Amino acid sequence: LGSFRTADFRTTLWLRCIPVFPYVIVNFGAGAAKVPFGAYFLATLIGMLPSCVSFTLFAFAAGEIWSAPTTENVLLFLTAIAVGVIGALLPLWMRRRHKRREAALE
Length: 106
Fold this sequence. Notes:
There is one protein chain. It is built from 5 helices and no strands. By secondary structure, it is mostly helical. It starts with a helix and ends with a helix.
């Protein structure tokens, strides 16, 4: 809860970017830490976008490849995988950036 109190938006965003992190834990944690609704809503919207786009694009592209395995469909499939990888790596990048900022302030 301490991390939520000091950085409402950043912590919520970081947790939402992790697609396998249980959302119910984030929901209860944000509520218990009294995260302002605006910060919670915006961080949730931005944080869930990469995984939603990736999963939707992946499912669509997989269906397209199954029905018509063209070069265009394979590229669409690979794009979906790339978006998923970028979305999965986003929390690591955010954490590294935060550590660099903290080190610069010291």
